TrEMBL record, chains A, B:
Major location (coarse): membrane
Protein's membrane topology: Multi-pass membrane protein
Name the UniProt record assigns to this protein: Sulfate transporter 3.4
GO CC terms of this entry: membrane
Transmembrane segments: 69-87, 122-141, 148-169, 175-197, 209-236, 256-272, 284-304, 337-359, 413-434, 440-458, 470-498
Domain STAS: 526-649
């Protein structure tokens, strides 16, 4: 199988044929190389490798290699409690940065905690409890240095929606609280199990495009719901779809209170302005970070001063002083609402996990360190399980507060400890101060926070780059707005998976031509200098060959050949004698695919066309070999490159003619 | 970007590094070729092309190109009624073959029709009705020449199961019949719509592996159920799972009738023997084709002769004479059972469609003609819709009868017309003859027919070639045996889709090395002669880069680089300076994938490593361009082949040093 001499001659012109001539000039000999099988492995070895790629792609044990026993113990301790990684090097300079950033996020966390708890239809104090215990636990277990832990808007919203559709907080407050803590427990259990079972890749199925649409939809709903507080409406729907919320707003016009509206809108404008300033100048991040607390203080003072003159502004009212009461006795583990609690837990768990992991990875990438997804899941999960036993609801790393934390110069998770301490002081001593804080300010804070989730520029970018990603985005947006939160999410995941299947079901095939003067074969429709090789028809299949596309591919390849034959006939070109399938991009094959290849070979043989396979990848080669169809291809049916196939087959024709 | 001279020198040794030296010898100049964008197309053009690939991959209108108006009309007529394609060339010789094969399949169709109707818990006469009208309609519309149309075991079984779980034929015969005809109507409507909307690819999701397991499971259940007839049991479960069926058999031992058992087993042995003979010698196909009718005649005569002496052998009893009565007034289009009828229709519709299409394709491939899947679906669908209005239940192309038809020398669908005529004669004149036909013979015929569906050798082949295909097969087998028919099918489809997603979620990556003396770069672990290229790290990604794998790929690539760096350190090799990603097999990318590439570039840049992309396919190139990340790669970040990238970057390093 050695060709002693050949040359690929240059030819000008675009789609011309007749480009390759084999002549006897001086050129280094071109050998044809055999296509190798991958090294033989037993089923067990294959299974082990496959499982290790699925569950341990990051090779978490590589740290333990070639270490002494003591080092191994230490590394293990650091592995499970990342606090030991940095605690030994911790110094006063780091502490100073952490104290500053910790106090900054505390000033944001306290008003946000109260607001988000209201979003989940929970008493405001639960929001503060949730900003105390979980950050402390995360600081021991978590591996991100910049994550600011606490309640977040999306998870609060989803929990509030899902629970309120069945149980009303105003009617059955104890049951509602029980279900909230139980959902938190299951959210934590689900998160920790995903991490422990190393199934972290599950959250990858929520693509960025899906989340973009989902968050924008949720932001719109949440903002509209806040009109309740901002307009002073008393009777409001507990539903979460666009239409009932809007009709609630406009049907209760008699409840609108002008004092509330004036004050609410002024503070909203103030908060949005400070947000804009900080976005334009990242150095001034503290302006938007401090403004919620400033608004809370200012509005409370205003209400206290005006309380004899102005009526109709609703305030938070009495909040109990003291630390988180234990709530493990409130877990609702059997009864008619258990399924609801589990469902709510899983949906909020997966959403908060996605946010926490994404935020952690974002800031880790900025500072060039790695966050271990599965470990983070365990940390977030354990922190929620602990939270559910100490009157906390679902928490995770918040994007807005983590950004403030990062900008304020946080160095380690100690900033979370500082924040928790500030919340502790608030819980112990400052609760009475919130008595006159108006509800409208909480609504304004929530609107300011969630409005940043509407990223229409990113949606435009999606439209420009990938229409199907845009479809996933818009369908999750509309699903959340008009159907429901979990269903909207399910629709979006469905669209994403459909996209993958569509690509598999209708893969691309391309006719290749030779780029004159080279051994490069490329897509004829894309490379204008590429030319057809007479007597050959070279086709690249750009996808695995699976049950889902084998019928299509067989028909499509036959259609390509039919069209090529028609073209040859009308152009009086030399007859097609050989069909070359470039399998470089056929990254996998199954039994249906193998049958297709084998049938195709038989059908082409009946038309006296030769079928040649080029460069099957390892796993494909292995399966072709195991199914014994390689033998039917013979020595001249399998080549390593298209160039070698063309040269070798041409020369064998010459030898026979 | 033109390299004036370079040479890739040979180096012996397996995994050695240091293989490439750039020297100034005489070699033809190697140009680097620009990576082209695909020709620009508007969104509308792209959408149109995409839709035409999804819905019209076979380009059904190509027949109409460049034809006169008259020819176009004729071709159109032939397109919708394939009968016009062959009717003009039909001659006496063809007719003779068709008459022989038609009578042969009639002798099989009559006993099978009666038996399969019993399998669906329908009166036996419905099976004969279903062998009369649908074949006539198919002969006008269908494009397969060898398909023998009529009731089939799987669809009968599934319809019987699904309906009997809610409605009992013995208690509410009219309602049961109504539901059966309605389910048939919806099956036809569903099939015709799939064809009309060109959604035929839906049935591709039932992979061969899945069907193999499903049919084997169904065959086991059906065979065990036939023990009712074969043992003469009166009280039998209507459930379809293994356990209730087995317990029915053994708990009703007092009902076993020895006369039935002796006669049944003898005929079963006779039928199985003739089947074996025909399988060993395909020329003797007529032995197994004629044996069911022979058994029916023989057993009926036996019962007539012995009826005064032997009791306990149950017979078919009275069957009404006459043609199919109209049943369009029996369609059940509103009421509590409508959902059941629709569900049953869709499941039986999809199963019978799969069988019909697969059988049609099999025999078309043998005779080297094409069957148009979407058109076949319309034909089968319309024939079932018409059937539902003329007292027929679900029919399709049967594998066993089509094989007999093919072996008996059928040339066109006229054999179906002959068969229908034979059934017509039976319906009009011969019905009283079946009065004494024993039920046990029907059970024996069903067992003989379905036992061929258990193809354990194919399952062994699956295990050898593709473990995940085997898993899909075994899970549909067990699902059908222990859970239920539709759920077993759903599980199997789930496994198949999971397999596709698994491949997408955890794609393969391979380190490439140069095969000395060539421009070929191949997998180092597979090609022992390939050698590492110093200062370069060349990685091939073998999958689209999607949301579902972008996180994994990023981590995996970083791990590859970490391991390579550790290897370099321990081997005191020259430092890694450039990472080349071979994108040949990256057949698609989405926005998450683009972000991954861009983040990877930034992360590598921080470690002073250069990232280079090689040979992105058209659609990937387009998206990289639209998202503006190509610019950040610059001129020296994108090459057409790995060889060009290595040569050009090495020479630029030389120039700078």
């Amino acid at each position: 199988m050695v060709l002693n001499s050949n040359r690929v001659e240059h030819f000008s012109g675009g789609h011309d044929t007749a480009a390759i001539t084999i002549s006897g000039d001086a050129m280094p000999p071109l050998e044809t190389h055999e296509v190798c099988l991958p090294p033989p492995r037993t089923t067990l070895q294959k299974l082990r490798q496959r499982l290790s790629e699925i569950f341990f792609p990051d090779d978490p044990l590589h740290r333990f290699k070639n270490q002494t026993l003591f080092r191994k113990l230490l590394v293990g301790l650091q592995f499970f409690f990342p606090i030991f990684q940095w605690a030994t090097n911790y110094n006063f300079k780091l502490l100073r940065s952490d104290v500053i950033s910790g106090l900054t996020i505390a000033s944001l966390a306290i008003p946000q905690g109260i607001s988000y708890a209201k979003l989940a239809n929970l008493p405001p104090i639960v929001g503060l409890y949730s900003s105390f215990v979980p950050p402390l636990i995360y600081s021991v277990l978590g591996s991100s240095r910049h994550l600011a832990v606490g309640p977040v808007s999306i998870a609060s919203l989803v929990m509030g929606t899902m629970l309120s559709e069945t149980v009303s907080y105003t009617e059955e407050p104890i049951l509602y609280l029980q279900l909230a803590f139980t959902a938190t427990f299951f959210a934590g259990l689900f998160q920790a199990s995903l991490g422990f079972l190393r199934l972290g890749f599950v959250i990858d199925f929520l693509s960025k495009a899906t989340l973009l649409g989902f968050m924008a939809g949720a932001a719109v709903i949440v903002s509209l719901q806040q009109l309740k507080g901002l307009l002073g409406i008393v009777h409001f729907t507990s539903k979460m779809q666009l239409i009932p919320v809007l009709s609630s707003v406009f049907h209760q016009r008699n409840e609108w209170s002008w004092q509330t509206i004036i004050m609410g809108v002024s503070f909203l404008v103030f908060l949005l302005t400070t947000r804009q300033i900080s976005m334009r100048r990242p150095k001034l991040f503290w302006i938007s970070a401090a403004s919620p607390l400033a608004s809370v203080i200012l509005s409370t003072i205003l209400v206290v001063c005006l309380k004899s003159k102005v009526h109709g502004i609703k305030t938070i009212g009495h909040l109990p002083k003291g630390l988180n009461p234990p709530s493990s006795n409130m877990l609702y583990l059997h009864g008619p609402y258990l399924a609801l609690a589990i469902r709510t837990g899983i949906v909020t768990g997966i959403l908060s996990l996605t946010e926490g992991i994404a935020v952690g990875r974002t800031f880790a990438a900025l500072k060039n360190y790695q966050v271990d997804g599965n470990k983070e899941m365990m940390a977030i999960g354990l922190m929620n399980m602990a939270g559910s036993c100490s009157s906390c609801y679902v928490t995770t790393g918040s994007f807005s507060r983590s950004a403030v934390n990062y900008n304020a110069g946080a160095q380690t998770v100690v900033s979370n400890i500082i924040m928790a301490t500030a919340v502790l002081v608030t819980l112990l001593f400052l609760m009475p101060l919130f008595y006159y804080t108006p509800n409208l300010i909480l609504a304004a804070i929530i609107i300011t926070a969630v409005i940043g989730l509407i990223d229409y520029q990113a949606a435009i970018r999606l439209w420009k780059v990938d229409k199907l990603d845009f479809l996933a985005c818009i369908s999750s947006f509309l699903g959340v707005l008009f159907v429901s939160v979990p269903l909207g999410l399910a629709i979006a995941v469905g669209v994403s998976i459909f996209k993958v299947l569509l690509h598999v079901t209708r893969p691309n095939t391309a006719v290749l031509g030779n780029i004159p003067g080279t051994q490069i074969y490329q897509n004829l429709s894309r490379y204008k200098e590429a030319v057809r090789v007479p007597s050959f028809f070279i086709l690249a299949v750009e996808s695995p060959i699976y049950f889902a596309n084998s019928t299509y591919l067989q028909e499509r390849i036959l259609r390509w050949i039919r069209e090529e034959e028609e073209w040859i006939e009308s152009n009086k070109d030399s007859n097609m004698k050989c069909v070359i399938l470039d399998m470089t991009a056929v990254t996998a094959i199954d039994t249906s695919g193998i049958d297709t290849i084998s049938e195709l070979r038989k059908m082409l043989e009946k038309r006296s066309l030769k079928l040649v396979l080029v460069n099957p990848v390892g796993s494909v080669m292995e399966k072709l070999h195991q199914s014994n169809i390689l033998e039917s291809f013979g020595l001249e049916g399998l080549y390593l490159t298209v160039g070698e196939a063309v040269a070798d087959i041409s020369s064998s024709w010459k030898a026979h003619s």
